[in-house]
Amino acid sequence: MAKCEICEKSLVYGIKVSHSHRRANRTWKPNVKRVKAIVNGEATHIYACTRCLRSGKVTRA
Q1: What is the CA radius of gyration of the chain?
Q2: Among 5, 37, 55, 57, which has the highest number of CB atoms less than 10 A from its own CB?
Q3: Are 23 and 5 in contact (CB under 8 A)?
């Protein structure tokens, strides 16, 4: 499952509504990338969303 290890962002469930107002269940997935980052002084691979990468919450190795 797609989940950011920094902010815990994961799947969001909702209803897709068309122009004619037909409704269907769907999911929205976060934009998660596998990056090499510094965690506790070590370089490890983590899954981080692009919002965390862009805002500087993740220091890349």
Answers
A1: 16
A2: 37
A3: no
Query: What is the pLDDT at residue 54?
Result: 96
pLDDT tens readout for residues 15-50: 999 999 999 999 999 999 999 999 999 999 999 999
Residue 32 CB partners (closer than 8 Å, separation 6+): 2, 3, 4, 9, 47, 48, 49, 50
Domain limits of the chain? 12-55
Res. 59: pLDDT tops 90: yes
Q: Residue 41 and residue 56: Cα distance in Å, rounded? A: 16
Q: What share of the chain is helix, strand, coil (3-state, %, to 5)?
A: 10, 50, 45
